Amino acid sequence: MPDVPSTRLVYDALLITSLDDAYKPATGPRVTGLGIGAALLAELVLSQHLAVWTAKGVDRVCLDERYRPPEDSLALWLAEHVRAERTSLAVRDWLDFLAAADVYTKTAEHMAMHGFMVRREYRSRWLKRVEVGFEPSDPLIANAVFARLRRHLSISERAIAVEDAFLLALTEAVGLSKPLYHQLPSGARVYAGKRRQALPAALRALLAHLAAAVADIAITGGR
């Protein structure tokens, strides 16, 4: 399988959560939305467009003090929503918003514009309407994202990109630990834990709220 460098954090999160293949299952639609939403927030934190700060025990999202409008349309869409709020909303509120706003489709459409996904239209026999779906333009390259993470774990690379450290933790948070660690050395989980602890505090906060949101879905059945 080819190994390729990361394209974008949010693109990789979509491929990890939504692809159902021989290496791992896809997550449910709401978990997929939460995972992609967390990755988009993290991407904007790393690019210094957004910041995560804690007030009275609540982690909130606001514009970074060095804010400048992102040039990318997907990033700008979220940043403008954050700027439009009169008060800073909690991280969990933004995760719920992004999942409800179908961030999966918005991201997949964005990937299709750049040639990473193919948009398909088909008529549903049962719903009697045209449905839209997306699939990777190159399945091997799409699967390489998950393979890259497993390679990090298998050889315990001393230095990995902060985006991949975040993706390792995100993969666990959305419930894909079993395929992630399948047949890997016993120290792989310890390695991933250390990479997570080395992440900036803002990214660790996003991951904690993502894991909590996914746990709530498991308890309530997605209600």
Write a structural description.
- It is built from 10 helices and 5 strands.
- It has a single domain (9-220), classed as yeast vps74-n-term truncation variant fold (Orthogonal Bundle), CATH 1.10.3630.
- Helix 2 packs antiparallel against helix 7 (162-173).
- Strands 1-2-3 form a 3-stranded antiparallel sheet. The protein has a two-stranded antiparallel sheet with strand order 4-5.
- It has 223 residues and is an alpha+beta fold.
Short account of what is shown:
It is built from ten helices and five strands; from the N terminus they run ααββαβααββααααα. With 223 residues, it is α+β, with helices and mostly antiparallel strands.
Question: How does the SSE layout of this entry go?
Answer:
Blueprint: H1 9-18, H2 29-46, E1 50-55, E2 58-63, H3 73-84, E3 89-90, H4 91-100, H5 103-113, E4 117-124, E5 129-136, H6 139-155, H7 162-173, H8 177-181, H9 188-197, H10 201-220
Antiparallel strand pairs: 1-2, 2-3, 4-5
Helix pairs in contact: 1-2, 1-7, 2-4, 2-7, 2-10, 4-10, 7-9, 7-10
Defining key terms:
single chain; 223 residues; alpha+beta; yeast vps74-n-term truncation variant fold; 3-stranded antiparallel β-sheet; 5 strands; 56% helix; 13% strand; globular; disordered N terminus
The number of helices is: 10
Overall 3D geometry? Answer: globular
Q: In which range does the helix fraction lie?
A: 55-70%
CATH architecture, by name, is Orthogonal Bundle
| Strand count | 5
Biggest pleated sheet: 3 strands, antiparallel
Residue share in β-strands:
5-15%
Task: Give the oligomeric state of the chains in this entry, treating copies of one chain as homo and distinct chains as hetero.
Answer: single chain
The CATH homologous superfamily corresponds to yeast vps74-n-term truncation variant domain like
Q: In terms of structural class, how would the helical and strand content be classed?
A: alpha+beta
CATH class descriptor name: Mainly Alpha
Distance between the termini: 38 Å
CATH topology name, in short, is yeast vps74-n-term truncation variant fold
Q: pLDDT average, as an integer?
A: 92
Radius of gyration: 17 Å
Strand order of the largest sheet: 1-2-3
* Low-confidence sequence ranges: 1-6
Q: Helices and strands, in N-to-C order? A: HHEEHEHHEEHHHHH
Number of domains: 1
